[in-house]
Specification:
CATH class of the largest domain: Alpha Beta
Strand content: 25-35%
Radius of gyration: 20 Å
Order of helices and strands: EHEEEEHEEHEEEEEHHEEEEHHEEEH
Number of domains: 2
Largest sheet: 6 strands, mixed
Strand order of the largest sheet: 8-2-1-12-19-18
Shape: elongated
Helix content: 25-40%
Number of strands: 19
CATH topology of the largest domain: Polyamine Oxidase, Chain A, domain 2
Amino acid sequence: MRIAVIGAGMAGLSCADGLVHTGHEVTVLDKGRGPGGRMSTRRVATPAGEIALDHGAQYFTARSPGFRQQVDAWAAQGVVASWPLPDPAAWIGTPGMNAVIKAMAAGRDVRWRVQVERIERDGDGWRLHAGGDVLDGFDAVVLAIPAEQAVPFLSLHDFTMAREAMLARSQPCWTALFAFDRVLPGSADMIRDTGNIGWAVRNACRPGRAGDAEVEGWVVQARPEWSQAHLEDDADSVAQALLAELADALGAPVPQPTVSMGHRWRYAMSAGLGHGALWNAGLRMGVCGDWLLGPRVECAWLSGQQLARAMVEETRLSA
């Protein structure tokens, strides 16, 4: 089959891997400027030099046999490293979290800066509309995007899947990125569940960030409840509020940062519906993502793999 996968995150690329390895032709489309998504790394210029800050997922664990095997392969490529500080089973992308997505996208037909606005049936296949472009000739389509973004597509073609997507609710997360011209007070490299902070980390303690050691960088993520309450606030005011929270958590004043910015993740984390993946064999339309399974990077990968297996099995049975 010739298959379109909408969304080049962990789930979409995992699904693409499973399909390509069994001989299918896959085109992956993503509205982003490049690899990352919720595993993004942002390079920030500071007076002391450039620093790379991971402002999405901070780490991931590997507990299932299949994902452990995949992580071992990434480790052999040098794109991940063990990071036991937050969890003995934790891993982190190197030199940035987006290194994992870059590795998965390499060698695949991934097209960035393509925002699919509409999908429609084209005989027995699918036609996609993106801006002024029309992409057709696809035998199947996969939605690997947050549930809230999948609903408008699904509601026109499969109300059962649309209803499931409507049941999924993602929690938002405001993230602040800071750079300082001196090391902050206190010995803490990591802060969890303190005040309105859900997570904060000193960048230099993360594996593969040695080149950034001359710049004191911090990533601060707000609790979901605080993020929801301030969802429509402007990024600068959020960054200032989280800077004050960081000072409170460290128990000492902090200097004025040389760089301060906020980033809003509207769809940061979903509890998961426990479905794994959804596949309509009659329409040849599928959905995968962490919102279908659970709130971890591993769940997104497993969901993509599960959908690919369902699609491959359907192709085998109909052959």
